[in-house]
Amino acid sequence: MNAIMTKFDIEAAEHRPPRWEGLSEIDQAIRDNRLTEYRIRKSWADPLARKLTIVGSLVILAVFAYLIAASFGLW
Q: The pTM is what?
């Protein structure tokens, strides 16, 4: 290996197209969203996971309803 860059190497580096980092981030986000959607659909297909999701959502809604009612002085 030669540690000295030749003129050809320098010119090749100058003419290289710029990397589009923003596009690779968008591509990764799209890929992550597809994986998230797949995981949500797969967990919703599982009966136990579906029941736990519904129960957890109802508990969270009940707590919010209690806090809203308490802030209006209903109890």
A: 0.52
